[in-house]
Design a protein that fits this description.
The N and C termini lie far apart (109 Å). The protein folds into 3 domains: 2-91; 109-181, Double Stranded RNA Binding Domain; 184-272, no CATH class. Helix 1 crosses helix 3 (81-90), helix 1 (2-43) runs parallel beside helix 4 and helix 4 (93-125) crosses helix 5 (166-181). 49% of the residues lie in helices and 17% in strands. It has helices spanning 2-43, 51-64, 81-90, 93-125, 166-181, 196-202, 224-237, 250-253; strands at 70-72, 77-79, 134-143, 146-153, 156-163, 184-186, 193-195, 211-214, 257-259, 269-272. It is an alpha+beta fold and 283 residues long.
């Protein structure tokens, strides 16, 4: 009797072990399919119809040297593009059909989303002032009335999720454009008015000859444009650049450099008019 109970316990333990292993394999298969679909749809825009076409796309990706690595949390195993190629090569016909179905479904959804994006862009650019054009860089439907978007409106680029209809999204972006339309900057040397976004994108100089300098990147007090101005000014006057120039307001140091703020953007802007002159110190 004891032997029978022991055998029964061993049998149940073996069954539980086999069930756990089966669940792990099912989870890994699902994850591998998902990774394969992501790889393919990131690089391929046409629907696929066979294992051979899937492998052809994956091998083209391999030639580019592009290889995002994924971590299977359950096992700690790292998956690379070569693993996906091996997986698809040896997959059952049922698995291949599932990959094809999911790839083609995702591509169709991406096409539908991009069509909405192009309609949005066309609507937003209708009657848009020069300098306040809208460009949608990426657009995806994440759920019902849930969108992921990267878009440039005028001088600013945004990456965000939006919950609402495309019409509601259009209104949010139009409101951003309206705010930038109000952002007018005056040349400190001649008082001529410029739409800030237009000046940032298209103008190098004011009609009076003053240069318009705007940041393209910034880290703390540093930007490549600000560093360029400090070097140019100090070199022209034959003086060393201050050691802590990043902490000094350049318009407080040079008479011919005028700061006009950031306005509705994230980037500082200056008007610069030669000749270079040091700021006169108040007595």
């Amino acid at each position: 009797m004891k032997r029978e109970k022991s055998d029964e316990a061993d049998r149940k333990s073996l069954i539980r072990k086999l069930m756990r292993e089966r669940k792990k394999l099912i989870k890994k298969r699902k994850r591998m399919i998902k990774i394969a679909v992501n790889y393919i749809t990131d690089f391929c825009s046409k629907e696929l119809n066979s294992r051979e076409e899937i492998l052809s796309v994956l091998k083209e990706i391999e030639k580019t040297g592009f290889d995002i690595r994924y971590l299977l949390v359950e096992s700690g195993e790292e998956i690379c593009l070569h693993d996906i190629i091996d997986f698809v090569s040896s997959a059952s016909e049922e698995t291949v059909k599932e990959i094809l179905r999911k790839v083609n479904e995702k591509l169709r959804k991406m096409d539908e989303a991009w069509e909405i994006a192009m309609q949005l862009e066309k609507r937003l650019n209708k009657d848009a002032p020069a300098g306040l054009e809208t460009e949608i860089h990426s657009f995806s439907k994440l759920g019902r009335d849930l969108w992921g978007i990267k878009v440039t409106v005028g001088a600013n680029t945004y990456l965000f999720w939006f919950e609402g209809t495309p019409d509601e999204l259009a209104e949010v972006l139009l409101e951003e454009r309206r705010e930038q339309e109000k952002d007018i900057v005056k040349c400190p040397f001649c008082e001529e008015s410029h739409l800030r976004a237009y000046a940032m994108k298209y103008l190098d100089r004011c009609s009076c000859g003053a240069r318009i300098v705007c940041e393209s990147a910034r880290s703390g007090g540093w930007s490549p444009e600000l560093e360029m101005l400090w070097n140019e000014g100090c070199s022209t006057l034959g003086i060393p650049v201050p050691l802590e120039w990043q902490k000094i307001h350049i318009d407080k140091f040079f008479e011919n450099v005028k700061y006009v703020g950031r306005g509705t953007t994230n980037w500082r802007m200056w008007f610069v008019k030669e000749p270079w002159q040091l700021k006169k110190q108040k007595s």
